[in-house]
Amino acid sequence: MIGYIKSAHAEDQEYIMTELNVFTKSLNISVMPEYPQSDGPSQVLDNLQARTGATSITTSPYVMEPSNASDAGREPPADGKAGTVRLLDRDLFGKRKLTVRTSPSFVPDKSLYEGLRYQPSEPDALTERESHKISQFIDQTKARGMQAYMQVQSAIPPGYKVQFGGAMSEDRPLLPNGSEHEGRVDKNASLASPHITDYCCALLRDLIQAYPNLDGLRVDWPEYPPYDFDSLFFDFSGHAEAAATRLGYDFERMRDDTQRLLDFFLVTMTDHHITRFLESNDFSVWDVLNNYPGVLDLKSLKGDLVSEMLEKYRRTIDDASGGKMDFVVQGFPPPWTQASGFDIKKLAPHVSGIGIKLYTMHWPMMVRGYADRILASNSNVSEKYILRGIFKILDLLDATPPSQINDVRYPEPDEPHLAGIQAQARKIIETRKLAGDTPVHVFSHAYGPIDDYRARMEVAWETSGHRMVVNRYGYLSDEKLNVLGEITGAKTS
Q: pLDDT grade, residue 493 (50/70/90)?
């Protein structure tokens, strides 16, 4: 038995071992469309099957080409500029970093979107030239006895790829003072906007028509992604107010208490407050939030918004597919779920599976962003204590956190991630316990050096009960694929 299971708390160790082989082994590799385009569908699938024994793939409904246009996006994504250190492990169109443009991989059925505020992207010459490769990739996947899934965005029209798109100003989430949070990493709209959910329902139906042999659909970020500090305090848009009133929440109390809490962090909090939290076994973040009942209501409202949205998506998928397709959602792990609205218990009844994303290269970037935001506004706190407080609340490490903010950053390609292996196991176990009978798929990211990658894949595979999604093929060198095959027990080349 590997080390992190041996060193787990007794009750968690028993849980892991009891549940380890409950489910059939499931290894999904996310292979975005650019690789079947660049390398060819057969070469990608040969590589996955020979080296990893993958049981399924996930792709997305777009096609890509290199571009130097002014609106071209970086590949790999820049992750709010912090990820500009990233390089692909596997050449894409002959390069390890490049700028690209995308087009839909299918011709949308415009009748499905009639009268909607948001419309699908227009197919173009790139669609006509390359879309057949995505259909071939799915068909060949199925022919090999593997499952095929397609991933779309929950709240970023047109929804094909996270870096391209976004909502109109009237559908964006707002802070308690009524302002937008400019420059955030994600582009998610207000989850209370009917214009967003209506569009996504049409998109899901359209994709099922275009790709009827899919085994399921994955919806990414059905939450308020907590990448940035201010994003923790969404959503006070007009759509959210209407939903809160309909559901019986006191919206003004939510607004007032959320603003008071924001002011506490940015103005009045001191090192003494943080020290009390760090040193007391009885004092928790909930002791703080109990003084802000409107914030607890906001937490509950966000969970309700996600649950209602996913219920609509599930009904659409069941209706359009005749009940034949899976519906899997993926979001941030606990305790970020408390602020993002990704309430595991509330959403579980509406989905076939829950994906929990352990994209650990993001974790120090997020901590750094939270700390920078507070330190820039509040002179009563120091680097050492704010870092200790944030790392403890989020439960990200197994050891003492850094005391200097310059040591907390997005990792270079050859730098281990600032994330504890035990901490990752705890998040997986907590999610599985909250999900009950709903399968939990652990999403682990392939970016990073080989030894760190191996440790993160091991904990995801074992603690998930052998249900893992690896993101993404572009960071999976042949050496990393071989390691994955060793971990999962597949025959390696």
A: very low
